[in-house]
Design a protein that fits this description.
single chain; 6 helices; 6-stranded mixed beta sheet; 7-stranded mixed beta sheet; alpha+beta
């Protein structure tokens, strides 16, 4: 504990919030100059945040917040980032593949987007967050004598990163919500409940993230929601074994030639997922189709429009080469007499002669 209530010191230059039943997303690296970088900032009352940061200025030497690095696409990890950008001038940084999902979350059907939390800035609901800088996988940066690197580290979701670098002689990895637990407890494997709707295919999620951490060999893992995991080598190995075992379990449970067909809700995906059209008008949508298999596949997709809507073309027939993905353009039109309201357009999918049915959809609002 420090002289600031709820602010705890992990290393001489590394701080976090902590308290009973208090699980915000906030880690702060404080340089000798008084300048700081945050990993995440969310689930915090703004009055409490102001008070804590004010006391850090008085008692711990904080002078400025240069940047907030967002660990992944879930809104609870950057709810207060726009507030700190407005009040402290902090830049908001992330990985490039996270950009569209956080800046325009309404265009996607992923879990926990920022607008679902009802957060406001200056009285207006936050619908998305524009980033000041987007990093490529493996891109590094120098800051106040430190060298950091931002890597793609999926797990809970594919739209995630690991911020890693040496702080006070220790290799620290900031991993968001990818793993939680007590490294000293041999029953803890690091995982939480897996949600496919996060876009969490294991090969592009927990397996990739676990193998990444196994190679990185961090001395300290800073997780989301106030978790600190010290000396995590054996813990990471348990996490890695769990990830592969989970993949094997899904392969056994799902009677498919590739388990991802039954697991992933996005191998047919409309972008944007939510569209608005006026009576007599039309709108374009890209339908992304993915082939997981190591061979070519044929698809037939019928677009099932409710009354008042039509699609051109009404049916997609085609093929994808092995492990390929491709967008196909659709044009949705509303009849001149279409009643205002929300509709669901479903996609009835057949692969290689096997009908899967209406597993996928998009939302259309006919606006008055």
């Amino acid at each position: 504990p420090t002289a600031v209530p709820h602010v705890w010191q992990v290393l001489p230059h590394l701080y976090k919030f902590r308290g009973p039943n208090f699980y915000p997303n906030f880690s702060l690296i404080l340089a000798d100059s008084g300048r700081a970088i945050l990993s995440d900032c969310g689930l915090l009352d703004e009055k409490f945040l102001d008070e804590a940061l004010g006391l850090m200025k008085e008692r711990l030497g904080l002078k400025a917040i240069d940047a907030i690095i967002i660990s992944h696409m879930h809104g609870d990890h950057f709810l207060q980032a726009p507030y700190l950008r407005e009040k402290w001038g902090a830049k908001i940084w992330a990985l490039d593949r996270m950009g569209p999902m956080c800046e325009h979350p309404e265009a996607f059907d992923y879990a926990a987007p920022i607008q679902s939390y009802g957060q406001k800035l200056d009285g207006q609901p936050i619908q998305g967050v524009k980033f000041d800088r987007l990093f490529k996988d493996g891109e590094g940066f120098e800051w106040e004598g430190y060298r950091f690197q931002i890597d793609w580290m999926p797990g809970q979701t594919e739209f995630a990163l690991c911020l890693q670098g040496r702080i006070d002689g220790r290799l620290v990895a900031f991993t968001g919500d990818n793993l939680f637990g007590d490294p000293e407890n041999p029953s803890h494997t690091g995982h939480e409940a897996m949600v496919a709707h996060n876009s969490a295919i294991l090969e592009e999620g927990y397996i990739y993230g676990a193998e990444y951490l196994s190679r990185l060999k961090p001395d300290l893992v800073m997780g989301g929601h106030s978790y600190v995991m010290d000396k995590p080598a054996a813990f990471i190995e348990r996490y890695r074994r769990w990830a592969w075992a989970m993949r094997d379990a899904f392969k056994e449970v799902l009677a498919e030639d590739d388990y991802r067909i039954g697991f992933d809700p996005f191998w047919v995906r409309a972008e944007p997922y939510r569209v608005k059209v006026r009576p007599g008008g039309s709108v374009s949508v890209d339908l992304h189709v993915r082939n997981f298999r190591a061979r070519a596949q044929e698809h037939r997709i019928l677009v099932d429009c409710p009354p008042g809507l039509a699609c051109d073309p009404p049916e997609l027939r085609g093929s994808l080469s092995a492990e390929a993905r491709r967008p196909f353009q659709l044009r949705l039109s509303a009849a001149a007499d279409a009643r205002p309201g929300v509709r669901i357009v479903a996609f009835d999918v057949t692969l290689d002669g096997r009908r899967y049915g209406e597993w996928f959809d998009l939302i259309v609002e006919v606006a008055p």
